[in-house]
Design brief:
CATH architecture of the largest domain: Orthogonal Bundle
Radius of gyration: 18 Å
Mean pLDDT: 85
Helix content: 25-40%
Low-confidence stretches: none
Largest sheet: 3 strands, antiparallel
Strand order of the largest sheet: 1-2-3
Number of helices: 4
Order of helices and strands: EEHEHEHEH
Shape: elongated
Amino acid sequence: MGVSAISKIGGLYYQNTDDLALYTEWFNRQQHAICRGVVLSRDDKIRRDLIKDLICHCYLDMDKFAAEQQLELTENNIQFTSTGRLLVRRFCRIFDRYLPVQQQQKFSRII
């Protein structure tokens, strides 16, 4: 809950408006402040789970992941070294199909 908050219910993600005045107006009227949403496809869910596992654990057991997602893969795992952990976000970008190729830098920089 809050301005520009992103929430998830099942396979649905939605985001509140990032306009503070509009959010406040809708809140005061006891209306939802949702400005957009998306229902995840199977592909989206697989990519989400893969990125989450890599970012949270810096490791992915490919055999276990493939079994859970009913996929067929040829290699066993991905694991980041101590130094490689600094670049895990950069690596995960290759799995994000919605990230524009030439995304403008808006948040924390990657080394």
